[in-house]
Amino acid sequence: ARAVISNHPRGKDVRIIEHPVNIGTGASRNSGIDNSQGEYIFFMDSDDEITPNCIESLYTQMKENPVDFVAASFDRIDCKGNISYGFNCEDLLIKGELELAQMYYSERIKKKELVYICSCNKLYNLSFLKKNRIRCIPHHLNEDLLFSFQVILKAESCRFLPEITYHYYTIPGSTTNKISNKKTTNKEVKECKEIIQFKKDYLNEFKNKAIYEILLTIVMSDNFQLTSIIYNQKLEEPISKEMLKEMLAYPISFLTLKSFKNHKAINYFLYIISIMPFPIQKLML
Q1: Do 182 and 173 contact (CB within 8 A), yes or no?
Q2: Pair 29, 41: CB distance under 8 Å
Q3: 181 phi and psi angles, rounded to 5 deg
Q4: HSE of 225 in the Cβ direction (CA atoms, 13 Å)?
Q5: pTM recorded for the entire structure
Q6: Which carries the bigger pLDDT value, residue 20 or residue 31?
Q7: Rounded to an integer, what distance in angstroms lies between the CA atom of residue 220 and that of residue 188?
Q8: 68 phi and psi angles, rounded to 5 deg
Q9: CA–CA separation, 60 vs 66, rounded Å?
Q10: Cβ(41)–Cβ(126) below 8 Å
Q11: Nearest Cα to Cα of residue 242 among 281, 185, 188
């Protein structure tokens, strides 16, 4: 990398930020946000590839329609070079407070995805990330989940492009594949508990917003699904009664839940599970 930079006509514009030890992807991205001096920031994983016009395409759209972030489509490539479906963005320009979040969670209810939950292949307005204190949890392996959760709820404008600008390589032995093919560690269980609690706490900011009902429905459904997956995996150490209770705990009272206009059935179900005795909770998972 240094050899390329030294011989490149714009090499003087490149800075390499080094850490004394491997601090992980999430912490590295936080470091990128903290040290960036330009207007925009783009993340990519070290084993992936961008198209030659990726940055130019995203930047052009950003300048034509200044937004909080621009996202484009991507494909998947396996180790043999076979190309398959990745994620196709609709051609959309979205503006307005919570407009993206409302559209995203309405689609989630219908089992559709409007935004791919990955921090890569998006050009972010750096001031947007800093103003809203959007960061990764440094020690988490799955840093994208909560980063994108914050982006979706805080973005007041965004642009989606059908153009493929990113090649996601599915490589045996990568972090993603390692996670899905081994025993779940105590550290990973702890991280899942932190994800669940982070989302519950984050909901408090939206209690007086129209989006709160659907947001709570999706968040608590995701939390129940994540708890169920973790509980039923082969674990290094069984989940304690106290931890399971915390993960399944419903964040609002029954009286507040009764005032909901939509999605009551699933919320009643999740609330009832949260107050059930521990042995019955385990059976429900």
Answers
A1: no
A2: no
A3: -125, 30
A4: 7
A5: 0.90
A6: 31
A7: 19
A8: -75, -35
A9: 10
A10: yes
A11: 281
Q: Is the pLDDT of residue 27 over 90?
A: no
Q: Is the pLDDT of residue 282 over 60?
A: yes
| Integer Cα distance of 161 and 192 in angstroms | 32
Query: Which has the closest alpha carbon to 53: 2, 1, 104, 123?
Result: 123
CA angle 150/44/49 to nearest 5° reads: 145
**Which positions ≥6 away from 198 have C-beta within 8 Å?**
137, 146
Structure token pair of residue 77: 């490539």
Note the pLDDT tens digit of each residue in 131-165. Answer: 999 999 888 877 899 999 999 999 999 999 999 99
> What sign does the dihedral 81-83-86-92 (CA atoms) show?
positive
Q: Which residues contact 164 (CB under 8 A, 6 or more apart)?
A: 51, 72, 73, 74, 75, 86
* pLDDT tens per residue, range 54-71: 999 999 999 999 999 999
* Closest to 143 (Cα-Cα) out of 98, 179, 99, 183: 179
SS3 per residue for the chain: CHHHHHHCCCHHHCCCCCCCCCCCHHHHHHHHHHHCCCCEEECCCCCCEECCCHHHHHHHHHHHCCCCEEEEEEEEEECCCCEEEEECCCCEEEECCCHHHHHHHHHHHCCCCCCCCCCCCEEEEHHHHHHCCCCCCCCCCCCHHHHHHHHHHHCCEEEEEEEEEEEEEECCCCHHHHHHCCCECHHHHHHHHHHHHHHHHHHHHHCCCCCHHHHHHHHHHHHHHHHHHHHCCCECCCCCHHHHHHHHCCCCCHHHHHCCCCCHHHHHHHHHHHHCCHHHHHHHC
